[in-house]
């Protein structure tokens, strides 16, 4: 279906043209952005509904996060920006490795599922302190 909105052009000036904008939106990029946001929205709704993802889903989400935090043009980043991007990527890669190696049998998901209805009772502070003293 063709868009009913006229295409825009980039034009930054003191007296810009009537159909000009400072940063035109690329429909392909916009579509990808919407898809990514919908995917994360579905993830949060699944957690809210009490569903637990399997390792393949977790791995896929971590890959998507890694893509999202990697800027396309890194030449504009400062030295600190490069370090930050590398650190976040390392954290996500380590998390993926932990899921793959330490949670291969999906015991973490099983724990979450089996404890989803547990009510946590908080001990009074004085009682907890007494336990530590004894």
Given as residue ranges, the uncertain stretches (5+ residues, pLDDT < 50) are none
Quaternary structure annotation: single chain
- Taken in chain order, the helices and strands follow as EEHHHHH
The major beta sheet can be summarized as: 2 strands, parallel
Cα-atom radius of gyration: 24 Å
Number of helices: 5
Which class best fits the helix and strand makeup? Answer: mainly alpha
Percentage of residues assigned to helices: 55-70%
Write a structural description.
- The mean pLDDT is 80.
- The protein has five helices and two strands, in the order ββααααα.
- With 134 residues, it is mainly alpha-helical.
- It is 58% helix and 3% strand.
- The protein is elongated.
How would you concisely characterize the structure shown here?
With 134 residues, the chain is mainly alpha-helical. It has helices at residues 27-48, 55-69, 79-102, 107-114, 125-133; strands at 9-10, 20-21.
């Amino acid at each position: 279906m063709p868009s009913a909105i006229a295409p825009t052009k980039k034009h930054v000036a003191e007296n810009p043209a009537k159909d000009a904008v400072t940063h035109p939106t690329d429909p392909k990029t916009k579509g990808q952005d919407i898809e990514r946001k919908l995917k994360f929205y579905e993830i949060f709704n699944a957690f809210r509904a009490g569903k637990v993802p399997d390792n393949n889903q977790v791995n896929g989400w971590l890959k998507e996060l890694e893509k999202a935090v990697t800027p396309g043009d890194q030449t504009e980043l400062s030295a600190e920006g490069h370090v930050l991007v590398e650190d976040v990527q390392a954290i996500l890669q380590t998390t993926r490795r932990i899921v793959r190696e330490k949670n291969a049998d999906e015991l973490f998901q099983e724990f979450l599922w089996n404890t989803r209805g547990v009510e946590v009772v908080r001990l009074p502070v004085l009682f907890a302190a007494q336990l530590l003293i004894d």
